[in-house]
């Protein structure tokens, strides 16, 4: 993979896919985008709506591990257990992830960041009393995941670059992986995608996007 570490506008790291000109996070800020889209409007919303002691979260696009790290921190703060599955076809190299500067923004979390990246693949690894991580290396097009989830972080590359990941077939898989009432959040708010989600039985909400983006999407699978 031809990619390099860059610094986004909030000072936090991301990766640039040099062949595409596409980044793993918003150039306006990796940490603030992740916090807004996936934590505030995903995980914390889930905690407020579904009063369980233990949750299952799936991330489509494990990438830099930033979303997993922030989820682990928020699970501990809320005293909620999270079983987290991250899907990634092309994991970062040790050289790449050691270049990320997330500990500058979360200075007490260097040990946890290293644990996230050093955790072996294809095995459930308890990283904290409230966070168990399973990283699995596979392509989204041939996704094979066991279990049912309360929340899905849909964080694949944009429609322009990978339209095959924004199809009805993919979102039907996402539906099948969610509990009734389960939540899918994504940075995207494309009309064609939201129409697919509605047709599949999701209640679709357009929300204010992170800095640099007007809107994002939260979709809730309607209970029957």
Automatic annotation (TrEMBL):
InterPro entries under this entry?
A: MnmC-like_methylTransf (IPR008471), SAM-dependent_MTases_sf (IPR029063), tRNA_MNMC2 (IPR047785)
Tell me which residues make up the MnmC-like methyltransferase domain.
145-220
PANTHER family tied to this protein:
MNMC-LIKE METHYLTRANSFERASE DOMAIN-CONTAINING PROTEIN, SLL0983 PROTEIN
* Name this polypeptide is given: tRNA (5-methylaminomethyl-2-thiouridine)(34)-methyltransferase MnmD
Which organism encodes this protein?
A: Paenimyroides ceti
Q: What is the lineage of its organism?
A: Bacteria, Pseudomonadati, Bacteroidota, Flavobacteriia, Flavobacteriales
């Amino acid at each position: 993979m031809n990619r390099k570490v860059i610094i986004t506008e909030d000072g936090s790291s991301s990766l640039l896919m040099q062949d595409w000109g596409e980044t793993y996070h918003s150039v306006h800020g990796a940490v603030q985008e992740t916090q807004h889209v996936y934590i505030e409007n995903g995980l914390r919303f889930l905690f407020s709506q579904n009063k369980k002691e233990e949750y299952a979260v799936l991330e489509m696009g494990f990438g830099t591990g930033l979303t997993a790290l922030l989820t682990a921190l928020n699970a501990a703060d809320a005293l909620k257990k999270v079983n987290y599955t991250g899907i990634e076809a092309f994991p970062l190299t040790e050289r790449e992830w050691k270049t990320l500067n997330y500990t500058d923004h979360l200075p007490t979390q260097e040990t946890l960041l290293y644990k996230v990246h050093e955790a072996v693949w294809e095995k459930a690894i308890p990283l904290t009393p409230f966070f168990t991580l399973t990283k699995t290396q596979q392509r989204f097009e041939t996704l094979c995941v066991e279990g049912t989830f309360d929340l899905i972080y849909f964080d694949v590359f944009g429609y322009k670059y990978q339209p095959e990941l924004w199809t009805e077939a993919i979102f039907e898989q996402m539906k099948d992986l969610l509990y009734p009432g389960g939540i899918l959040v994504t940075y995207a708010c494309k009309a064609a995608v939201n129409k697919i989600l509605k047709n599949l039985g999701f209640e679709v909400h357009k929300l204010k996007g992170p800095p640099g983006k007007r809107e994002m999407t939260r979709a809730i699978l309607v209970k029957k």
